[in-house]
Amino acid sequence: MIELQTHRKPSESVKPTSRVWLLQGKQMGDNAQVLALGQSLQEMGGFSTEARPIRYELRKASKARRHGAPDTGAMAGSGLTAPWPEVVISCGSTLCTVGQWVKRMSGGRTVQVQIGRLAARPEKIDLILETAQYGVTPTANMITLTLPIVRPDTARQAEAIAAWAPRLAGLPRPWLGILIGGPSSPIRFTAEDGSRLLQRMLEIRRELGGSLLIAYGPRTPDAVREILARGLEGDAAHRIFGWPPQGPNAYPALLGLADRFLVTCDSANMIADASVTGK
Questions:
Q1: Alpha-carbon dihedral of residues 190, 191, 193, 199, nearest 10 degrees?
Q2: What pLDDT shows up at residue 134?
Q3: Residues with Cβ < 8 Å from 70, sequence gap 6 or more?
């Protein structure tokens, strides 16, 4: 996790005209990191942030033309046109390319901050915020993070808790929140891993009692879901929150309501989310 600090006096802060674009793609974990960093910059003062959702057409173009010229038509379709911002923040390889295009279209004046996987040589990016699982060789323009940048969305969490707490009230405490991801290079997630996960969660419950609150995401393999469903069939002291999420999304509620967590190692974002709860 990263804590942003500034030693500037108010009169020394960056001018309020320093605009920051927060690129938003299809990965919720990536989007959350970008928004969290943007919120921290906004609170520091001197930055004006704006979330920019990147449409499918631009994401597709950035993959097809990763090392080519910017697709200005696709960029315009996502609202990425002049005047260009002073800073653009992107996360993940697809939006790294979009951030590169913004920097290029600005004549190199826009500062690109990249989180996570890269799609350009490190020296072409102004600041890289990197966690260890990507195996990127450290460079002079890189800050190595212990865990991804996360900030709890208290309003969203309160809404989710209000919706889900009554539905879970009959389950015995303590509640073990189990956050499950899926394959993420170089980490595999096989049916065998799913069986070991099932055994581990049952071991913890035998030791502590209580109930299992299980949440999996879009990357969780079908074989793992089936193993969990079969292994818990007839067990009343559990709930499974699948994908796509039910409304409202139960994930923020689990972070607030669970008493402790078991998290699969493939998702640094989920590990960070669980860590900041202090449980």
A1: 170
A2: 80
A3: 101, 104, 105
CA distances from 92 to 118, 191, 248 (A): 7, 27, 26
Helices of type H across the chain:
28-44, 56-64, 72-77, 93-105, 154-168, 191-208, 222-231, 250-257, 268-275
State the DSSP code for 87: E
Q: What are the residues facing 222 on neighbouring strands?
A: none
Q: pTM for this one?
A: 0.79
Tens-place pLDDT, residues 83-132: 999 999 999 999 999 999 999 999 999 999 999 999 999 999 999 999 98
Residue 56: what residue type? Y
Cβ atoms within 10 Å of 68's Cβ, excluding its own: 11
Per-residue exposure over 18-56, b if at least 16 CB sit within 10 Å of its own CB, e if not:
bbbbbbbbebebbbbbbbbbbbbbeeeebbebeebebee
Please calculate the CA angle 115-94-123 and round it to the nearest 5 degrees. Answer: 55
Q: Is 220 exposed, middle or buried (0-12, 13-18, 19+ CB in 10 A)?
A: buried
How long, in residues, is the chain? 279
Q: Give the gyration radius of the chain's Cα atoms.
A: 21
Span 242-251, pLDDT tens digits: 888 877 889 9
Q: Is-contact 180 220, C-beta < 8 A?
A: yes
Instruction: Report d(CA 272, CA 30) in Å as an integer.
Output: 13
Decide: 54 and 37 in contact? Cβ < 8 Å: no
256 close to 157: Cβ distance less than 8 angstroms: yes
SS3 255: helix
